[in-house]
């Protein structure tokens, strides 16, 4: 088996993995970065999820490098896309004019910007990227990880990887069971966490839904796909709390749980300038077409786009029949989630109610080219390749950490005007409502207002293992607080801190645990973070 080594090994090339790599590389370290799918960027790219961000993102509350990513995406559009003059002059350009985010964009643009950010380190040889490789085994010596084996996703070819520091940036915390690192899954009990939204008994198999997203436009012709094999099942499927069949425009309002009717109007020809993407004011999901729209044709020169492009990540896409973590055949369950997504598309094309009283939108065209997993395809030609490359995984395995963030730390109802708990070992900030989708245990949405919060270093340090660091959604949160800490800018912040911490520990010849518990080391590390553009505290603002 061939072997490779570096100073920092990062397994998983999502947002956390890329941020960790950039941080370590800027510090002068050599880095090995592996990724299971064809694109780097995780939830922003291969999972095709536009950035879920807080209301102040244009001004503060993210790291400088995350802001550089956002600026780079906008500059890519200005440099290469046929924007209208008005769109080109707009500082806070929102290419898709989607309501979910102030920066809705095509996934491929983020791929281009992330690759450009990494390009000089690839050129110098200090960064080596292995795609598509997934971890399959690991070696340990006491409380240290000594090596990780990765296998090519398609051929099975294996490579042995070693480094003094190993970062787990996989979407589901894949290295935790492979290395014997203690972790939790699913819902902790109220007795363990004291959280008011937790159940009386722990439910380790109760995890948030996964979703396989896809992109569509609406152009002339009949683009109806072949009827999916599982369509009849999903067409009749009625979750007990849904208020209707799952394949409908009716579903629970996440914040109130009242049954809401959403509209769907392809190409409404709305003015992009009138879109107000602010979660404080409006969740934005009233019209599903504009909710996560990633290309608004009126932002581009006339004729450049025949249609808007709509990113489908809607309630009806949530697969919560079974978990995909710590099960015998996770790929089969991801396959079932893909079948649900194809069924949603087929229902939209054939049976969805229209405002004119008719049914079906056969002019909806699956845009696998937009998600990097197929072509713009017409009926009869579409397989699973037209969907996003990877499932959108909301909840990971989570380390048993030196400190676990609980609901009481950030719930607006509990904390009120005191704001979220301020940690002495803060290594970043984030903000999002505690947003839990329906789960495999039969739970409805859990949606709790949150205070702007901090990221404690203790949540990044396993209780026992010394040289393995989480670099994504696998930090020390609970099932509940993961709902706030799982979004794009927080994952990036966590990854960036993990990369900087690995460098700091290598340079000082200390452990991450020593950094947290030694006041002088902690102060030095926090100063290093601040110098790198990582914000550690919030100004005086209120949550939502």
From TrEMBL:
SUPFAM superfamilies: FAD/NAD(P)-binding domain
Highest taxon listed in the record's lineage: Bacteria
InterPro entries tied to this protein: FAD/NAD-bd_sf (IPR036188), NadB (IPR005288)
Pfam families, sorted: FAD_oxidored (PF12831)
Name under which the protein is recorded: FAD-dependent oxidoreductase
Organism: Micromonospora andamanensis
């Amino acid at each position: 088996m061939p072997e490779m080594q570096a100073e920092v090994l990062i397994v998983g090339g999502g947002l956390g993995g890329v941020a960790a790599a950039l941080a370590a590389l800027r510090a002068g370290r050599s880095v090995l970065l592996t990724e299971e799918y064809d694109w780097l960027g995780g939830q922003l790219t291969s999972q095709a999820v536009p950035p879920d961000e807080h209301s102040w993102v244009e001004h503060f509350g993210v790291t400088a490098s995350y802001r550089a990513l956002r600026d780079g995406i906008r500059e890519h559009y200005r440099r290469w896309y046929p924007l209208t003059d008005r769109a080109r002059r707009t500082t806070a350009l929102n290419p898709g004019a989607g309501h979910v985010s102030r920066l809705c964009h095509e996934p491929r643009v983020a791929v281009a910007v992330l690759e450009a950010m990494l390009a000089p380190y690839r050129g110098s040889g200090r960064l080596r990227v292995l795609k598509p490789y997934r971890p399959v085994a690991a070696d340990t010596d006491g409380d240290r990880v000594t090596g990780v084996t990765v296998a090519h996703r398609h051929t099975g070819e294996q490579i042995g990887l070693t480094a003094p520091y190993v970062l787990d940036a996989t979407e589901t915390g894949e290295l935790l069971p492979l290395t014997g690192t203690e972790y939790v899954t699913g819902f902790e009990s109220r007795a363990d966490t004291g959280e008011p939204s937790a159940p009386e008994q722990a439910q380790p198999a109760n995890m948030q839904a996964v979703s396989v997203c896809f992109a569509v436009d609406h152009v002339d012709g009949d683009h109806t796909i072949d009827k999916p094999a599982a369509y009849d099942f999903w067409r009749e499927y009625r979750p007990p709390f849904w208020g209707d069949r799952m394949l409908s425009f009716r579903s629970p309002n996440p914040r109130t749980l009242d049954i809401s009717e959403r509209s769907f109007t392809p190409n409404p020809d709305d003015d992009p300038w009138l879109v107000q993407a602010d979660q404080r004011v409006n969740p934005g999901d009233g019209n599903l077409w504009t909710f996560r729209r990633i290309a608004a044709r009126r932002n581009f020169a006339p004729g450049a786009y025949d249609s808007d492009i709509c990113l489908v990540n809607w309630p009806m896409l949530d697969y919560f029949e079974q978990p995909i973590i710590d099960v015998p055949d996770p790929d089969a369950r991801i396959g079932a989630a893909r079948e649900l997504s194809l069924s949603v598309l087929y229902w939209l094309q054939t049976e969805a109610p229209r405002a004119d009283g008719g049914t079906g939108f056969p002019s909806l065209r699956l845009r696998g080219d937009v998600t990097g997993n197929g072509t713009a395809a017409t009926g009869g030609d579409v397989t699973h390749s037209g969907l996003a490359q990877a499932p959108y995984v909301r909840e990971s395995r989570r380390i048993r950490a030196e400190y676990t963030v609980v609901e009481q730390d950030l719930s607006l109802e509990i904390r009120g005007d005191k704001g979220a708990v301020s940690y002495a070992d803060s290594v970043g900030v984030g903000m999002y409502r505690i947003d839990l989708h329906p789960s495999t245990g039969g739970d409805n949405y859990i949606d709790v207002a949150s205070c702007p919060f901090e990221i404690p270093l203790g949540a990044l340090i396993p209780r026992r293992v010394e040289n393995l660091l989480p670099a994504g959604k696998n930090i020390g949160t609970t099932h509940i607080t993961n709902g706030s800490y799982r979004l794009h800018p927080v994952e990036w912040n966590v990854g960036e801190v993990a990369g900087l911490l690995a460098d700091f520990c290598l340079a000082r010849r200390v452990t991450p645990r020593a950094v947290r518990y030694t006041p002088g080391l902690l102060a030095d590390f926090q100063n290093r973070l601040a110098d790198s553009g990582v914000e550690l505290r919030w100004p005086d603002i209120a949550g939502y």
